[in-house]
Amino acid sequence: MEIILKEDILSLGFKNDIVNVKDGYGRNFLIPTGKAIIASPSAKKMQAEDMRQRAHKLEKIFNDAQSEADSLKGVSLTIATKVSSTGTIFGSVGTIQIAEALAAKGYEVDRKKLIVKGNVKEVGNYIATLRLHKDVSVEIPFAVVSEDAPAVAPVAEKAPVEEAETPAEA
Length: 170
Description:
The chain has two domains: 2-53, Ribosomal protein L9, N-terminal domain (Ribosomal Protein L9, domain 1, 3-Layer(aba) Sandwich), CATH 3.40.5; 69-169, Ribosomal Protein L9, domain 2 (Roll). Helix content is 42%, strand content 28%. It has helices at 23-30, 41-53, 55-72, 95-104, 148-169; strands spanning 2-5, 18-20, 36-38, 77-81, 88-93, 114-116, 120-122, 124-133, 136-146. The chain has 170 residues and is of the alpha+beta class. The protein has five helices and nine strands, in the order ββαβααββαββββα. The strands form three sheets. The protein has a four-stranded mixed β-sheet with strand order 4-9-8-6.
């Protein structure tokens, strides 16, 4: 069954793409939820006319995505989470935590555009892919660390400073 997508669907395609899907998937999910329409000859003509009229808008969207991708290059994240003594995480780190970490750095992204391959269930370094446009994606490296580790380091740095001030005052 040929359908025209009305919105981006991660494993299937992008908005206004004409794709082939199994009949049940198209009739029972995509069409009733408004994510696609049947690709009849008249619908294909309307879609082609829409694409012709929207060409300059799509170019602007592409340029915006490219500039956002350029600003995100070189950004790396550190996500602190509760960790057991063996180094495994209680729960897992997902796109929600990555989006929150990016928001804390001043980058507002939609968590649905983030892709993390595999499950993040251990302390370590990982890579998330942010799909801003069908032709623009950015890889964002992130490290998962224990919540306790960052809290210990600043205390250790402050202690010698206080000791240095005490002998100077005496």
